[in-house]
Amino acid sequence: MKIERHRINPAKNRTGWLALRAQDITASVAGAILGVHEYTTRFELHALKAGHLSEDPTETPAMRRGRLLEDDALQILAEDRPHWRVTPANNVYLRAPELRIGCTPDAYAVDPERPGRGVIQVKTTSDVVFRHKWRTEGGEIELPLWIAVQAIVEAKLTKAAWAAVALLVVGHGLDLHVVEIPLHAGIWDRLVEEVRAFWQGIADGVPPPADYSRDGNALAALYPPDDGLPVLDLSADNRAPALVDERAAAAAAIREAEKLKKALDAELVEKLAGHTQATLGDGRTVVRKTIARAAYSVAATSFPQITIRTPRKAAA
């Protein structure tokens, strides 16, 4: 497998780095191809790679945190595992041009207790997110699948013998957790097959079906409202009336659920009779708090709003 190496610093030349990545399925979004990515869907990725949507060149706060803390994570890794030889990857973008798969590895490591060089993927998170998202009920660390897929891609393109994620948890201190990633050949083989199919879909202009529970923002960006367009006739579309009816039923169910919740809260307030806490027979605790909401201003934003208008009945 031919591998190209492009030296580029994303912090100093983010536009150039994004242009390099645009021609490939990168390790960070490869999970979307397999349907396991937490933030990106295959439909959205198709729209991006087909040029219908543009990737935001702005670095998000989370991206900035990860970039600035990457050196700290690698320093802690070197201190925690002094027998490892840890080397930063030094801003190199790797790509397999025949497969159109690429990655920007964070670091490499050599462990004298096993053969070959390993690739290290650095992730950062807050202690709150770590407790709720990365920990199982048994207290074990459980990596999201898309991160495991990212590590497998990076290992393949760097020809690494093993891979690990260095997770830096930011709270009152800096805690580093090292998670080994099994390099399942089957996942790589399936990814290569799915990536080929994905790019063929781009060439044929055939997008994958949208996931309506996740692709709302992508669809809104793809189809911005245009007051210059004529009224669309959907009278022959049998699904459209069903959508409107289902939406009305869902809205009514939400209203009824809110009314029921409000009534149940009122009954619990009566049960508490001024107490702020109460214990139940099954061990649960009911807590009553008074929330003071400060005044605030909302930043300008835009979002799609759907309303249904019912035609007026003709006068008799």
Q: How would you explain this protein's 3D organization?
A:
This is Phage-related protein endonuclease-like protein. Residues 17-141 form the YqaJ viral recombinase domain. The structure is a single chain. The chain has 2 domains: 4-204, Lambda Exonuclease, Chain A, CATH 3.90.320; 239-287, no CATH class. The protein is 39% helix and 17% strand. It has helices at residues 14-22, 30-33, 42-49, 61-80, 127-134, 145-158, 185-204, 216-222, 239-272, and strands at residues 4-7, 25-26, 85-88, 92-96, 101-103, 107-110, 117-126, 162-170, 174-181, 277-279, 285-287. The strands form 3 sheets. The chain has a 5-stranded mixed sheet. A 4-stranded mixed sheet has the order 1-4-5-2, with helices on both faces. A hairpin with a 3-residue loop joins strand 8 (162-170) and strand 9.
Topology:
Elements: E1 4-7, H1 14-22, E2 25-26, H2 30-33, H3 42-49, H4 61-80, E3 85-88, E4 92-96, E5 101-103, E6 107-110, E7 117-126, H5 127-134, H6 145-158, E8 162-170, E9 174-181, H7 185-204, H8 216-222, H9 239-272, E10 277-279, E11 285-287
Parallel strand pairs: 2-5, 7-8
Antiparallel strand pairs: 1-4, 3-6, 4-5, 6-7, 8-9, 10-11
GO molecular function, one term: endonuclease activity
InterPro entries: PDDEXK-like_dom_sf, Restrct_endonuc-II-like, YqaJ_viral_recombinase
Keywords: Coiled coil, Endonuclease, Hydrolase, Nuclease
